[in-house]
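Marked as duplicate of an earlier ticket. Keeping the data here for the record.
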Amino acid sequence: MAMRSLVLIAHNLRSAHNVGSLLRTAEGLGVKQVFLTGYTPYPLRPADGRLPHLTQKIDKQIAKTALGAEKMIAWQQQTNVDECITTLKKQGFMVAALEQSQTSIDLASFKPPKKLALVVGREVEGIEPEILQLCDQVLEIPMQGRKESFNVAQAAAMALYELRFHG
């Protein structure tokens, strides 16, 4: 069975702990690359232009949940998510958002293509409508309980697992 090429776009997340968890999950599930876009915190990198005391604090928070995965997986910080999505589409990726919306389909019924980019977004408000419009598909994890949504890192983990092994 040919391995599906998965990439993850984490856009406008506030929590460095969520970023660390996403990097660890992505590494464990064979995600090819993670794009940290918008104001999403990112690990320390060579020639980092951020203020050293802030960078060290953020890096430490990411490392706490990533447990070394931040050094194992290919990741890239990219401020402009529109450019990131456009570039991936030009490279033959279908771009799917993980979000509850009027147009979303059940994740379990989705048949992913060979090259898929999954977009996850803001912890509380979700992915911005203008970004959803750039995506080819919107996927939703059906909720069984009374809560309206999952934590972004847990939702990404469920979706990436489903896309890797069952799609």
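See parent ticket for discussion. The CA atoms of residues 95 and 136 lie 5 Å apart.
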